[in-house]
Specification:
Blueprint (H helix, E strand, L loop, with lengths): L1 H4 L17 E14 L5 E9 L8 E6 L6 H5 L1 H17 L12 H7 L7 E10 L6 E8 L8
Antiparallel strand pairs: 1-2, 1-4, 2-3, 4-5
């Protein structure tokens, strides 16, 4: 108990949780689909559960927004390219085969990637710090197991 609460102050951050450290993890997809948050932000939400090792049963929640109309992408278009690449990695790593029609919009894409529920892959987590702002950003790569058939 003391180890868990050593640097935790419930007054200043009642929902503080220790992040999963950067690394590669075998994960199972527990939930995936299109989500719209109260703020109006929508994305493909992926809930990945680590299935082995020191962090077994920990959950990583990942949002990927591939909507070209997102305001952020007007200012930083390379972020849209990164989001599309991440989604493509997820699709490949979970063994899905999508059509061009599945990419019509985020709702349609969310339905199509729902087929990844229960699939396993490797999740690589890295953290990068912005030189300009000093903020740390979490990055994700989805990797197929080496023994998966090529498509």
């Amino acid at each position: 108990m003391q180890q868990v609460t050593a640097n935790y102050d419930p007054k200043t951050n009642p929902s503080q949780a220790e992040s999963i450290p950067p690394g590669e993890y075998d994960v199972v997809i527990e939930a995936v689909g299109h989500t719209v948050y109260e703020s109006g932000y929508d994305a493909i939400a992926i809930k990945a559960k680590i299935v082995g090792g020191d962090h077994a049963d920990r959950i990583e929640l990942i949002n990927i927004n591939v909507d070209p109309g997102n305001e952020t992408y007007t200012k930083w278009p390379n972020l849209l390219n990164n989001a599309i690449r991440s989604m493509t990695q997820f699709i490949y790593a979970t063994g899905l085969q999508l059509t061009d029609d599945d990419w019509e919009d985020q709702l349609t894409l969310g339905q199509a990637v729902g087929e990844a529920l229960g699939k396993q892959c490797v999740l690589r987590i890295t953290d990068t710090t912005s030189k300009k702002s000093g903020k740390t950003y979490r990055n994700y790569e989805f990797l197929a197991y080496d023994d998966m058939p090529a498509f």
